[in-house]
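Retro notes
What went well: the complex prediction finally ran end to end.
Inputs used:
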Amino acid sequence: MWDKYLAIGLIIFILTGITNGLSHSKEKKDVLIIYEAKTRLGESFSILEPLEIYLHHFDVSIKSIYVEDLNFPVSNYDYVIYIGLQERKLTKDILENLSKAKNLIWIEANVGQYAEYIGWSNFKNYGYKTGYVSIIYKKESVSINLDIPIYVAYPKDRKDLSFLYDYTQKVPWVWTKGNLWYFGRLDFEDNSFLVFFDILHDIFKENHTEDRRILLLLDEINPLTSAEKLRELIQSQCCEEVPISLVIYPEITHSRDTYYIEDNRKLIDVIKLADENDGAIILGIPPNKEDINEKINRDLIALARVGIFPIAFSLPYPNMEGYDKASRYFEIILYRGLIGTKMSNAIGYPINMDDYNPNNPTDYNLLVRRAKEFRILRDAILGITFPSYAPTENLRRLINDIRALGYDFLNLRGKDFYVETSHIKVMKVDGKKVVISNVPPLEKTFLQRIFEVFVNYLRLILIIIVSLFTIIIFYLIKNKRKLYEMGEKK
Amino acid sequence: MKSLTFWDYAFVISMAIVWFILLYHIFLTIFGYRYFLKTQNSTLDSDELPYYPKVTVLVPAHNEERVIGNTVDAIMRSIYPKEKLEVIVINDSSTDRTGEVLRERAKRYSNLKVLEIKPLLGAKGKANALNQGLKLSSGDFIVVYDADNTPERRAILNLVRFILDDPNLGAVVGKFRTRNKDRSILTRFINIETLSFQWLVQASRNYLWGLATIPGTNFIIRKELLEKIGGWETSSLTEDTELTIRIYKSGYRILWMPYAVTWEQEPEKLGIWFKQRTRWARGNLAVIFTYLKNFFSLRDKKIMLDILYFAYIYLLAFSGIVVSDTIFILGLLGLVKLQIGGPLILIWFLAYALYITETYISLGFERGEGNLENFLLICLMYFTYCQLWLIVVIRAIYFSIRERITGKALRWYKTERSVS
């Protein structure tokens, strides 16, 4: 009898789980961002735009509206994010509307007006405060600049999620009460965003598993790169069991001259070898004014002609227009952002560490410290570029230091990838890279082939002839007596 | 995606043109060396000849007061029976003391005849003067020397020896050396140039094809043949090259040999050198065009090859060098980037090494010339003297084209003498 109940219960549980899972994966959460300003007063860094981008870390659909344009009920949205970057008087209508929100996430100023409107007693509103040295979150501590203003306000009965520390006391700056989550600061230039996004996992009920990974990119591989040097770096990574990711720039201009990957046959061989051994080939383009569509197509063809097929694209700038364009061709895009996103049907992997500069030890220390701070984010992905010209021993040191922080290395070949242009398709099928291409392989013209044969033979002939002539000269010098006389004196 | 450009094609074509001739010159060097070994093995037994034919030495002179006396003296010192040696100096409308010097020498040497040519008949170039001398000559063989020459004592004897030896020889050419080679860097360059020309071009062609070019001095020719082919061509700037071809056309051969040596004075100033070499280049171009037009009328296939060789050198090889030099300079300026590749720098170095070794070998045949100073000069010559030849040929082509357009006749330029 118990068996029957157990079986029925199990079936109900499984079906419910599947149904929930389906509905969870299919239905995106609707998020409304209400902003008072896009930037903080006196600053030029936008808060709104990166927030819109990085919210795509979650399965959400986003709408943004200026606070004075709000003329519809916010209760239609699953989540409302209010960005209070300026201290201003909110109208009753707005407060009434906000009070109807299913879940309200308030950032910085004017939260006191909301608290008063909904009748919270014992609400302390201290306004913008400075002098904090660190953020304490989940037993971790990350530094912040003393000068950073953080809006401090909180009710008496609340649940604290994160504190500020000023050497003497802890001050709550992230807390929750009822359906409100409050953040005393959100900025993408300091570490406050790390706490924000980690807590958003809980708010959005997206339980991304704790998985901190690092994407180590061997960058700046171009026609002028030494094949031997790249081979050395790859071998070093293999010894450390770090997945290979190569960012290739097939065409570069240097000192007014343009260089092409096809001219560096040795480099091509090394790249192909990395590809055959599960290395991820990533197409990189330098930041210039050329149309990105044209450049991607041209570079993909240039690489296809020499048998190299990238699986991802590295966007050289944090530009969403470029991201959207690139996403027409690539499912994996590396971009100059802070956290991983999923937009325009492409997964964006962030290159969020400063470029590794082999010539500056200070930069290296900052890089390691930043990687340490990123651990706050439960599913942090770090993107580090290591230039192909940097010393190999520096790469080993970087790998070891990062690994010591608890990061695993990310293998892009392990992810689902898809690349498509009118000539090329690259996809993952049964764990293998499959390439369909109608780009003819690079074949030298008849003239080039003939010329190369000619030059090679010529080199050989000349070496022999010059050697022979040198022997003749030595013979003549040795047999001076047999030479023609100067003749009879005039 | 890069693709081949006009410059790539131009570069490949110019490389092919230039390297074709450079590879041919490798053969010339090898066979020049073979000829050297051959001449080393054959010794001239004595100063005696089976018989001594009557020889007339023609020396055209136009304002040669500085050099003509020494030249006559040197010829008169020749080891050849005086009664069989007739020397005719053609004083071609000289306005200096040439006539005076010659009259003084005529008193001293009974076998010296001075032929005075006055304006209207004279001053029409070397070919005209030689033709006038030819009319007066009584020898069976004609030997020609320029007025600045100092032939060695056995020069005439050996010229006669070789032409008597082979009835198929229409002419025999001896070797000329630079008398004033130590005067300037230019004359040092010319010394190297003349030796390498003779040992690499004359000797090897002689060895390979039985071909040689008459250089205008220090050669012997059968008088009968000369009369048959009409003497020297007066309208030609390089009457010697032109005469060469006509000798081959008539079925005779020409031999170059190193046993008859004359020492001549070369230009010491660049301006004089330019004028002289431009005349040669213009004259040679005129000859090339003349015979290219009547190419298939040439009976001797070897001389056809020789005409092609000179046409190739003057028209194609020089154009190839100009094009590749232009591409090189534009490349340095960043205006041209070739897509075509290969170990081109190594090839260039090997070509340079080839040039140095080839030239040094030709100097090495002569005692005292295969020294460090000449080695360094050869290294320098590549970038200096050799490049001047480009200007000479371009000038010559320009003058030739201008001449065709304007219809102005060729004017014979007499090389100015610097020293006595």
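What we learned: DSSP finds twelve helices and 25 strands in chain A.
What to try next: split runs per interface for comparison.
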